[in-house]
Predict the structure.
Amino acid sequence: MIQPNAPVSENFQLPPAMADSAPPVDTAYNFIFWFSAVFLVAVTAAMLYFVVKYKRVKGVKSEPTGHFNKLEIFWTVTPTIFIVGLFHVGFTGYIKNATASEGATEIRVRGKKWSWEFEYPTGDRVAGVLHLEVNKPYKMIISSEDVLHSFFIPEFRLKRDAVPGQYSFISFTPTVTGEAHVFCAEYCGTSHSGMLAQVIVESHEEHKKFIDSMGKMPETCGTPPVPCSPEKWGETLFVSNGCTSCHGMGGSGQIGGAKSPGPKLAGLFMKPGGEMLMTGQAVTPDENYLRESILRPNAKIVQGYNTVVMPPFVFKDPQLDALIAYIKSLK
Ligand code: CUA
C-alpha cells in the first residue's frame, strides 16, 4: 500500500508539495504574497494618514512640492530590481521543468474529451490513473486528440497545455509517495470539470508490481473492492476511461436528465431491430459491432449522434473483452 508520509507544505494556501518542481514555485509564491501584503498595509496606512493630514481647510492654499529626483529614481529602480529578480526565479523554474534529466522515463499523456490517458514505455495504456515511482525523473509528452486541454498537477506545481497536433513537454521528479491529482485547466466542453485523473507516487517495489500488472485483470475491482470478473473489470475500465462522461452512468444514455452526447449502451447488445445508423441502415449490435465502435468509433455512426466525435481508444484484447462483457451486462 501507499504510505503517504505527507510532508504537508508549510503554507495553508497550497496543497502538499510532492515533486522537485514545487519548492521554487512555493518560495516565489510566498515571497510575492507577503511582499504584496506588507505593501498593501503600508500604502493603505500612508493613504489614510495623508487624507487626514492634508484635509482641505477653508482659507488655506495648497503648496505643491516640485520634482524630487532622488525619490523618483528610488521608486523606479527598486521595483525594477525586484521584478528582474522574480523573472529570474520564474525563468529558471520554467527551463528546469522544460528540460528532462538524463535517463528520464518518458510517459505519453493524451488528453481527450473527457479523460486523461497515460502510455508507459512498455506500450501499455492506462486511463484515469498515473503511476509514478518516487525519486525517478520523468518526462511527460503531452498531446491532445481533439481540443485544447491543459495538464495540471497542483501538488507538483506544474501545468502545461495539451494542444491538438502538437507535443508539449514537462519534466519533474516526484519526491514524496502518496496521492496527487490531475486536473484539466482549460475549458474543453460540457464535462471539462470531470476531466480528472489520480496520480499515485509509489515505491520502486510497488511500481514494479503495477508495471507487471498492466493489461491483465486485477484481483479486485471497484470501490469497495470485490473479486474481479470480466464484467466488473469492464466497469472499472468504462469509468476510468471517461466513457460515462459521454454515455452516462452505466451507459444509461442520460446525463443529468438530458440525452447524453453518446448513444445509450444499456440494453444495446443484440437489441431487437438493431441499432439505427446515420446511413438509415440498422446494424446488429453484437460483439463485433461493439469492438469496432470502441477501436474505430467513426466506422458506424448511430443516428442522431453525428454531432459529437468519440476519440478512438486503444485496448489490449483482454481489456476489450472485459469492456464488451460489461456492455453486454447492461440492461
Ligand atoms: Cu479538458 Cu478541460
Observations:
- The mean pLDDT is 88.
- The radius of gyration is 27 Å.
- The helical segments are 22-53, 69-98, 204-213, 230-240, 244-247, 287-295, 317-329.
- The longest strand covers residues 105-112.
